[in-house]
Amino acid sequence: MKRLLFSLLAATLLTTPLLAQQAAPKPETDWAKLARYAEANQQLAAPVAGTPRVVLLGNSITDAWPKTDPAFFAGKPYEYIGRGISGQTSPQMLVRFRQDVLELRPTVVAILAGTNDVAENTGPYNQHATLNNIISMAELARANGVRVVLCSVLPAADFWWRKGLNPAPKIVALNEQIKAYARQQHFVYLDYHTAMADEHQGLPATYATDGVHPILAGYQVMEPLLQKAVAEALKHKQK
User: Fold this and answer.
1) pTM
2) CB–CB of 52/107 below 8 Å?
3) Which residues form the SGNH hydrolase-type esterase domain (predicted)?
């Protein structure tokens, strides 16, 4: 009888941790998606002398850019490195800023952040918090000798994945703050919004079929603006 009780107790002790392990929910182990570009970063060659390296940090708009217009990324006079991740908000970009920007030794970084903050992808939108995240990234870049281009958030009248947030005026207000901060700190401000917005402060169908993500025609509006902003950043030293 004692032997039977001992066997039952041992079986219970052995199976309980296993059941607990099976029942435990899978945690979010890579909130900032640091793994996304980890291998590509390791394989990236050192910058080529005479060809400034420009890292584009952003969300899905930046993520889709090299696939939509690969010729632009293969061109000169700059080496563009895309480091966009679909759905990301400014705090996630800030977490991966060292790995996906600074460690790549760029001459310039172009930061495009805010769309998914306004869309509340990782929680309620707070304009002050979003601006602070952008400021933190800009300060990190400057402290490491990287020149900064701060991009306006692209226009959007609504988000198809989270309708009813009335993002247009929020985007305009955030852009005004980004612009003011860039002017104050002598960073280059890249205004995509003015060049692309329709009469409703949205992104027209000629530039985006879903009102948020540019198609080729949209990127072709953005590209010369980016080239000009990078050239301006290279022209003068940051204070």
Assistant:
1) 0.88
2) yes
3) 57-221
Q: Give the 3-state secondary structure of residue 5.
A: helix
**Distance, CA of 111 to CA of 137 (rounded, Å):** 8
End-to-end CA distance of the chain: 83
- The answer to whether the beta carbons of residues 59 and 84 sit under 8 Å apart is yes
Q: What is the pLDDT along the chain (239 residues), one digit of tens a residue?
A: 445 444 544 444 444 444 334 444 455 789 999 999 999 999 999 999 999 999 999 999 999 999 999 999 997 899 999 999 999 999 999 999 999 999 999 999 999 999 999 999 999 999 999 999 999 999 999 999 999 999 999 999 999 999 999 999 999 999 999 999 999 999 999 999 999 999 999 999 999 999 999 999 999 999 999 999 999 999 987 77
Angle, vertex CA 135, rays to CA 38 and CA 181, nearest 5: 140
Distance CA 113, CA 101 (A): 14
Q: What's the 3-state SS for 156-183? A: CCCCCCCCCCCHHHHHHHHHHHHHHHHH
Tokens, residue 62: 């930046």
